[in-house]
Amino acid sequence: MRVVVADDTALTREGIEHMLEAGGVDVVGRAGDADTLLRLVDQLRPDVAVVDIRMPPTHTDEGLVAAAHIRTAHPDVGVLVLSQYLEPSYALRLVQDHPEQVGYLLKERVFAASALVDAVQRVHDGETVVDPTIVSALFGRRRRDDPLGTLSPREREVLGLVAEGLSNKAIAGRLYVTERTVESHVTQIFLKLRLDEGGDSHRRVLAVLAFLRR
After folding, report:
1. What is the pLDDT of residues 61-103, one digit of tens each?
2. What domain range is 193 assigned to?
3. Statement to judge: residues 77 and 160 lie in one domain
4. Do residues 23 and 51 share a domain?
5. Of 79, 3, 103, whose CA–CA distance to 45 is shortest?
6. What values do phi and psi take at 52, rounded to 5?
7. Which of 6, 16, 85, 186 has the largest CB neighbor count within 10 A?
8. Which pTM value belongs to this model?
């Protein structure tokens, strides 16, 4: 797997590169700003771009804008956005237009190399990955016309784990239930959210979108 890393802080960029390479990922490009990132993606066509959400010149949402551009211009390139801020709206903004092959992790999660490499791999495989901290924050939110209102507490819990990017097998291990039980819950989630068309992978992404939307 070929990856480009973009972060304006050299130490952070080098740390991310080291962890990825230790996990068997080939880091083929490095960028300190959004413009350089976009040029590298155009030239190198990596499998995934790992992007800091705040980069020069304004340090607001340049990384998020660059991520959206990459997904539009190069739909075969996955994007994993890293942020030091807990902001669910950023996660939704990232996935609502290009829901597949994207991820949003808090930077504190990056200190666990296995979590970073796993997230990059899942994005490369076409999944949507959302930081568990954001998923937890969304659980307590009340919404009008909540599309998840028909789900049981266990189904909402399963959907939250789907939003984190976990497979059915991994969810089963987390909840100490059988994989068949998880499959049953996921099927009920799809039915209740009226996601009864298309493949399971696509429906999982749509279910995550339903979870993230306000």
Report:
1. 888 889 989 999 999 999 999 987 766 667 667 777 677 888 8
2. 142-212
3. no
4. yes
5. 3
6. -75, 140
7. 6
8. 0.73
> Which tokens belong to 32?
């300190």
Tokens of 94: 């990232």
Q: Is 116 exposed, middle or buried (0-12, 13-18, 19+ CB in 10 A)?
A: buried
How many CB atoms are located within 10 Å of the residue 41 CB?
23
Among the candidates 76, 108, 130, a domain finishes at: 130
Q: How far is CA 20 from the centre of its chain?
A: 16
Same-domain status, 112 and 167: no
Q: Given a cut of 90, is residue 147 above it in pLDDT?
A: no
How far is the C-alpha of 32 from the C-alpha of 41, rounded, in Å? 13
d(CA 213, CA 186): 19
**What residues have CB less than 8 Å from 27, skipping those under 6 apart?**
3, 4, 5, 17, 20, 21
Q: How far apart are CA 198 and CA 29, in angstroms?
A: 36
> Rounded distance, CA 19 to CA 38, Å?
23
How many domains is the chain partitioned into structurally? 2
* CATH code of the domain containing 192: 1.10.10.10
Q: Same structural domain for residues 120 and 183?
A: no
Question: What does pLDDT average to over the chain?
Answer: 84
136 within some domain: no
Between CA 78 and CA 41 the distance in angstroms is 11
Terminal CA-to-CA distance of the chain, rounded, Å? 34
